[in-house]
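Batch job 17 of 40 flagged for manual review because the log was empty.
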Amino acid sequence: MNYHRLDQRRNFIARHFAEDIFMSAEPGSILVATGDVIAFPIIYFQTVEKLGRQITLIWLPMFSQPWYVRQLRACYPDLVSPFDYYDGQSNNLKLLMDANPDHTACFIITLDDDHSSDSTYWPYQRGLLTLAEPRSRTLSMVDMMKENEQLLQRYRPPNPAAVKRETFERDILFAYAWPEFRIANICEWAGAKNEARAWYQSALQVDPEFSQAREALARLEH
């Protein structure tokens, strides 16, 4: 009697999310995933359905295990790992990025604990991904907004009304709203309040329960 509640045959949220992630990353990129909810769909579609095989995928929670580093080296011969395990301190992301200068490192949402690369790299928002760009490279805010406007139009975020809030779908919806929120932050910091307001509103269209975006909009009105 309740099977229709469990029938997920037409639920493509995880698939669309993985496809949009792989579409956003340039071939040869090193994609660092953190939380299980974000990582599992990407790992599945790359491993089982062979999507995004040109992307080097690192699941950060496992990166601290020597066996996982050995597995990465076997799976991705082009990846240079300068350490046998990751600890976020002496063995950190800056060392990894410095050892792979021809591969752009990108992250889904943000990393809060490892700040080793802050003085050398800066975060550039490119759709669902945050790219670690060398500080020697400059990109204008206008160009960033134009690139994201084009990229975001190609995404397939889930309908907020259809998202099962008690499941992983809630986190995927948040990930889709995050780019607009980040770009709005940048515009607000630069004093471009009208542009910031528009991007905050876009974030809320994707995820109406994004409390940080709603608070930021209220802040702009004062």
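Reviewer: the log was empty due to a logging misconfiguration, but the result itself is present. The first strand starts at residue 30 and ends at 33. Unflagging and moving on to job 18.
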